[in-house]
Amino acid sequence: MNDTRTRLWAGLFVLVVFVAGFAAGVVVRPWLGPGPSRGFGPRGMVGRPPPDRVTERILANIADLTPEQDQDLRAVFDGRQQRLREINEEVRDRFETQQAQMDAEISAILTPEQMEIFENEILSMRRERGRRGPRGRGGRGRDLPRRGPGPPP
User: Fold this and answer.
1) Once rounded to an integer, what is the mean pLDDT over residues 46-75?
2) Residue 72: which pLDDT band, with cuts at 50, 70 and 90?
3) Which residues contact 40 (CB under 8 A, 6 or more apart)?
4) Which end of the chain is more exposed for a tag (fewer CB within 10 A), N or C?
5) What is the tens place of the pLDDT at every residue in 15-28?
6) Which sequence spans correspond to the domains of the chain?
7) What sign for the dihedral angle of Cα 128, 130, 131, 136?
8) Given pLDDT bands bounded at 50, 70 and 90, which one contains residue 114?
9) Is this model's pTM higher than 0.70 or not?
10) Torsional sign, CA 69, 73, 78, 82
11) 84/81 Cα distance (integer angstroms)
């Protein structure tokens, strides 16, 4: 066999394996059940349904709820969601305060030239984290807002 013919057969083999795998996935998918939500909404986390859908699912699975019980449970769940949002905001505020304090301490130690190198290194690390994701390879990261002066021109 010549080289072109071998490449053609290898390419055809790869294509057949891909199509067979895709077809098997389509056929098997209904038996696996619904997958996790992949969206990231204002209150939902990656891989988890938003809290409102969790509430609806829980309430739908509890048999014979009276309207009063339904209303009381919804109030409990809504209150929990609100408390968790408040805790999240408090933690974020505390983190930003600590970050600003650390930036000020570092700035007091380094010379302006060293500070510029330090900030460029931090930017580089944030970009790398954005490519790898927050938990390593394959994760979904995002670039964080930059603190301090911009990179040199």
Assistant:
1) 82
2) very high
3) 46
4) C
5) 888 888 888 877 77
6) 51-110
7) positive
8) very high
9) no
10) positive
11) 5
In the block, tokens 């290898």 appear at 10
Dig out the tokens for 152 from the structure.
Answer: 């040199």
Write phi, then psi, for 147 (nearest 5 degrees). -105, 145
Contact assessment for residue 72 and residue 80, using Cβ atoms and an 8 Å cutoff? no
Encoded tokens for 87:
């805790």
Residue type, 98: Q
149 within 8 A of 112, measured Cβ to Cβ = no
Sequence letter at residue 124: S
Q: Can you spell out the DSSP letters for the chain?
A: --HHHHHHHHHHHHHHHHHHHHHHHHHHHHHH-PPPP----SSPPTTS--HHHHHHHHHHHSTT--HHHHHHHHHHHHHHHHHHHHHHHHHHHHHHHHHHHHHHHHHHHS-HHHHHHHHHHHHHHHHHHHHH-TTSTT----PPPP-SS----
